[in-house]
Amino acid sequence: MTDTYLTTDELAVRIKYDARTIRERLKDSVLFEGVHYIRPFGGRKILYLWEAIERDMPKHSQNTGFVLPMANGGVCHG
Fold this sequence. Notes:
By secondary structure, the protein is of the alpha+beta class. It has helices at residues 8-15, 19-26, 50-60; strands spanning 5-6, 37-38, 47-49, 67-69, 75-77. The strands form two sheets. The protein has a three-stranded antiparallel beta sheet with strand order 1-3-2. It has a two-stranded antiparallel ribbon with strand order 4-5. The longest helix has 11 residues, at 50-60.
């Protein structure tokens, strides 16, 4: 299995978001470490896993009515 690793700037181009928005609003709210991004060799640099983001992006954009976001990344349908 080959993963596509992207920097924040490369991801920003693909999903048409500002890199700052990714760092400040998406990371750790809908993009989770170990699922959507890694820190190679325990460093500070972040590499995003494109296939995981591409797989999960539609799940967060479905209009399912009223939902409450949960701390673990899931949602509660109200």
